[in-house]
C-alpha cells in the first residue's frame, strides 16, 4: 500500500463447534483458531475472549479480531453439535435460534464469509425456514455425493484389493457388476462402510477357509453376519439418530470380529497343545522303526521279541531319534545273540585330564 502500510490477513479459519449450543465456548474456539493461525503457542486471543463474562462483550471482541486480521473465511466444523442440545431424555433438540443469530451477526458486522460442515441433521435445521435463509446461504456441497459416483466407487474398490490376505485373491476382472452391486447394496457407497465390509470379508475368509472365493453371495452373507441392521439404518439416513445408530452398528461389528479372533486364537492354541501331546516319543519312534525294518528283512524274529529287546536296549543305552540306524543294528545283533558295545553317555573331562590338556596347550604355545 502507499506509504509503506501493510495489511495482514488470515485467509481462513477452521473452528471446531462446541456441543449443546455453548456460546461462550463458541467464541473461545474462534480465539483459539486465531492463535493457531498466527502461530501463537500462548492462547493470547482465546484468553482475551475468556476474560470477559458477557456474551455481548465476547461477540464484540470476536468482531474486532476478525476485522483486525481481515479474515476471509471462517469454517465452522461439526455445526450440528452447535445447533442442537441434549434434553433430559438425552435426545437432541433444536437450539439453533441463538446459535445461528450469532453467526449471522458476525457475518453481517464484518463481511466475513462463513462455511459450515455438518451432517444431515445440521442441513435440515439450517434449511427448515428455507425462504428466510435463502438470502444468507450460498451453495451446498454434499459430502456424500461421491457415494453415487460409479468411477469413484470403482477407484475405492480397486485400491482396496491391493490389500488381501486370503489364498484366492480378488483381481480387477473379478469386480463384476454383480459383485459391485452387492457392495453398493450393502454400503450405499459410503467409504467407511466399504472399508469396514471389506475388512470383514478378509476376516471371515481367514477364520473359516483361506481358499474362500469372495463373490457376490459371500459379500451379502458377511454383511448380514457382521452388520445385520446396517441396511435398515442406511435406508433411514435422514433420521435424527442416524449417526448414533450407524456408529453403534460398526462398533458391534468390531466387537464380533475381535471375539472371532480370540476364539480362533484359542483353537490354534488347543491344536498346538494337541500336537505336542500326540507327538510320539523318541523311544516309540525308534522301536517302531526297528520292528518295521527287521521284519522287512527277516522272518526269524517275532514282533514281540523285537519290541522287548528294543525296550530293554533303549533303557540301558543312550539313544535319540537321530540314532535310528544304529539302534536297529544293535537290536538285530542282540536278537542274533551277538554282543554289542554299550552306547554310553559322554563323560565329562576329569580334572586331571583337563589340567594335563591345558599344560600341553601352554607348552605348545611357548
TrEMBL record:
UniProt cross-references to InterPro entries, sorted A to Z: P-loop_NTPase (IPR027417), TniB (IPR008868)
Pfam families documented for this protein: TniB
Alphabetical list of SUPFAM superfamilies matching this protein: P-loop containing nucleoside triphosphate hydrolases (SSF52540)
Name of the protein in its database record: AAA+ ATPase domain-containing protein
Organism encoding this protein: Intestinibaculum porci
Organism ancestry: Bacteria, Bacillati, Bacillota, Erysipelotrichia, Erysipelotrichales
Amino acid at each position: 500500500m502507499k506509504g509503506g502500510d501493510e495489511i495482514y490477513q488470515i485467509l481462513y479459519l477452521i473452528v471446531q463447534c462446541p456441543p449443546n449450543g455453548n456460546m461462550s465456548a463458541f467464541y473461545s474456539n474462534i480465539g483459539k483458531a486465531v492463535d493457531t493461525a498466527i502461530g501463537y503457542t500462548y492462547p493470547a486471543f482465546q484468553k482475551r475472549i475468556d476474560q470477559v463474562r458477557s456474551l455481548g462483550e465476547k461477540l464484540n471482541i470476536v468482531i474486532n479480531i476478525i476485522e483486525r486480521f481481515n479474515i476471509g473465511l471462517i469454517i465452522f466444523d461439526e455445526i450440528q453439535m452447535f445447533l442442537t442440545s441434549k434434553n433430559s431424555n438425552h435426545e437432541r433438540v433444536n437450539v439453533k435460534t441463538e446459535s445461528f443469530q450469532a453467526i449471522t451477526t458476525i457475518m453481517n458486522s464484518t463481511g466475513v464469509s462463513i462455511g459450515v460442515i455438518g451432517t444431515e441433521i445440521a442441513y435440515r435445521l439450517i434449511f427448515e425456514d428455507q425462504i428466510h435463509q435463502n438470502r444468507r446461504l450460498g451453495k451446498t456441497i454434499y459430502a456424500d455425493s461421491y457415494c453415487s459416483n460409479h468411477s469413484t466407487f470403482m477407484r475405492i474398490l480397486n485400491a482396496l484389493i491391493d490389500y488381501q490376505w486370503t489364498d484366492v485373491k480378488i483381481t480387477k476382472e473379478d469386480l463384476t457388476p454383480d459383485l459391485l452391486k452387492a457392495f453398493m447394496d450393502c454400503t450405499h457407497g459410503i467409504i467407511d462402510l466399504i472399508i469396514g465390509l471389506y475388512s470383514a470379508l478378509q476376516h471371515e475368509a481367514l477364520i473359516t477357509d483361506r481358499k474362500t472365493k469372495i463373490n457376490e453371495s459371500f459379500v451379502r452373507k458377511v454383511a448380514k453376519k457382521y452388520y445385520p441392521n446396517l441396511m435398515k439404518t442406511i435406508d433411514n439416513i435422514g433420521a435424527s439418530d442416524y449417526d448414533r445408530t450407524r456408529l453403534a452398528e460398526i462398533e458391534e461389528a468390531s466387537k464380533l470380529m475381535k471375539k472371532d479372533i480370540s476364539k480362533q486364537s484359542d483353537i490354534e492354541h488347543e491344536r498346538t497343545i494337541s500336537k505336542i501331546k500326540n507327538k510320539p516319543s523318541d523311544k516309540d519312534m525308534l522301536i517302531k522303526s526297528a520292528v518295521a525294518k527287521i521284519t522287512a528283512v527277516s522272518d526269524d524274529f517275532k514282533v514281540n521279541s523285537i519290541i522287548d529287546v528294543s525296550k530293554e536296549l533303549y533303557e540301558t543305552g543312550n539313544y535319540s531319534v537321530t540314532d535310528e540306524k544304529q539302534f536297529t543294528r544293535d537290536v538285530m545283533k542282540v536278537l542274533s545273540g551277538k554282543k554289542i558295545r554299550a552306547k554310553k553317555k559322554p563323560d565329562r573331562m576329569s580334572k586331571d585330564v583337563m589340567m594335563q590338556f591345558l599344560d600341553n596347550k601352554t607348552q605348545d604355545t611357548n
